[in-house]
Amino acid sequence: MNAVADGVDASGDAAATFAARHGASSPEAVPHEAATDLPVEIAGLAGRLPDRLLVAARERAARLGIGADEVLLAESAATPDLLLAAAATRLDITVEPLDGTAPVAVPPPEALRGLMRSGLMRQPDGSIVAAARGLRLRRIAATLEATPMLHARLRLTTPERLAQHVRRHFTEPLGQLAAFALRDEKPDQSAATLGISRYLMVLGALICVALAGLALVSPALLLIGPVLLVSLVLLGWSCLRLVASTMTPEPEPLPPRDDAGLPAYSLLVPLYREARVVPQLIEALAALDYPREKLQVLLVIEPNDGETAAALARHANRPGFDILTAPDTGPRTKPKALNAALPFARGAIVGIYDAEDMPDPQQLRRACAAFAAPGNRRVGCVQARLAIDNVADSWITRQFAAEYAAHFDVVLPLLASARLPLPLGGTSNHFRRAALDRVGAWDPFNVAEDADLGVRLARGGWRTLIIASTTDEEAPRTAGAWLRQRTRWYKGWMQTLLVHGRAPRRLIGEIGWSGMLSFLFLLGGGLVSALMHPVFALALALRWSFGGDVGASPASLLLDGLGILVLLTGYGATVFCTIIGMRHRRLTGLWRVLPLIPLYWLMLSAAGWRALFQLIAAPQRWEKTEHGLARTSRRRPVRLRLRPARNGAARRRPMIKPG
């Protein structure tokens, strides 16, 4: 620790460049009183770093509403340990490196949460370790001045050292917290507690198929009830899409330019076998237009993924980026990895990105504008729109792009404007940290954690908004990769329906009848459509091919009418929604997409039935989607070329090299 204060190469040219970039006072002549009137967090650096650098950091910190030490850290002008040594000397308290032996007692999960939120940890000898920086350090200084006796008990460390200490010594409770907290605290809202209902869902689907076959062989009035029930769900799903196609987009607030009012932001990025896209990911995240001092990026990897870890070590070695390894406890799923990273997130807003994402540079500012708009105090999540980037890779990616356009640009905005629960996308969703904590974060046992979390937010009284900011994604370009991904999505939808549908009266009490119906129509209708589409189509085709007197009975006419109505309405709604979505997204090739919708629906059906049987055989299996395989791109080369020009902070070279 003594070495951290030594060997600081503080060149005057670097200080001048830093001051000029951030509009500080002229670096040529800094008055002596300005250089000595420094906030407590950097006052101990006087004489160790150039005065004009410290003054520039102080002035930028005042504009951002943060500590000056955070500015120096973001600029690589000082290391965390150097700042720690200087602050401890200034406050006359002891430095705690937290590099010794393991603590005597392991805190329970709730205490571990409190430790990470507060940055305070009690040692076995009764001393208190504070991991503080910036404005928190100023509050500690004021407390020490008011209560001098605390000098003997208080020790100072860095947030980085505290996080490393927790990861090193508390791996087991962290893993238990990430994997089982929701199951233990809210068992009725976790897919881990699903039992016989999984088998009943499979049995119900098979019964529906059997009834459809029976209706084909011998139409009877007795069969109208079950067929009518299924038809109503499918018609509700279609009508929802038709209504969404007629909606006019609502105006959105402009992204804020006042950096002082922006909150601290944490981005969680789970990665597994993603080494090939790591360079692109880091460039995309570094190009986000947000003050570096207020942005934290947590990259979460699995313990058996050395290749991705090596790629991150090469490309993510920059201020504000931290690499975490998810504990090897419980299911190895994306939501478990997100839960493992959440205790280390320091931001009031928490955003989620996937490895292949290319978000709009203004996305974080737009999310902040939505959270801060009048009347939005109960907005718990802001979902950006997702678009497919590698549209021209294959006919599958083209259909996928059209499907995404209909879903994110047409359907979800309707649900958000009507204040209805909606299934989130798996990425580019931005949460109030308070909302995440209240609802129990992600369910590690649900393989569509995004859809489930969207419903739990609604049940907790939180709204979700859709913003007109786009994240480009890579779609699977082969049938096998597409089928595995869609199977996982459908299986997660089934888990979500079973979890939140096991207490219908309570669910209605929490989200209302309209919320209940939209939840049923969107998730249930999508699943029933995938499972029953080939059954309805085959039944009608066979009946029409048989002809004869069978169609003359009232039961036969009613069943035929329901089948035709469901098919025509379903295809009509899909076509209409697809047209609107593709026009909004400015996708070409509409007449290549529409004729292939029936074939695409058959693929959806294959994924639906595969998901149904996986629900029994492998409910938590996470079938990985490989990325970095795209052969074409609509926007990525342009975005990567333009982003650094729009955001000067995309790649900052260190102003000063700490020794």
From TrEMBL:
Subcellular location: Membrane
UniProt keyword Transferase, yes or no: yes
Molecular functions per Gene Ontology: glycosyltransferase activity
Entry keyword annotation includes Transmembrane: yes
Segments traversing the membrane: 199-217, 223-244, 515-542, 562-581, 593-612
GO cellular component entries: membrane
Keywords tagged on the record: Glycosyltransferase, Membrane, Transferase, Transmembrane, Transmembrane helix
Pfam families: Glyco_tranf_2_3
InterPro entries per record: Glycosyltr_2/OpgH_subfam, Nucleotide-diphossugar_trans
Membrane topology reported for the UniProt record: Multi-pass membrane protein
Name recorded for this polypeptide: Cellulose synthase/poly-beta-1,6-N-acetylglucosamine synthase-like glycosyltransferase
Organism of derivation: Ancylobacter defluvii
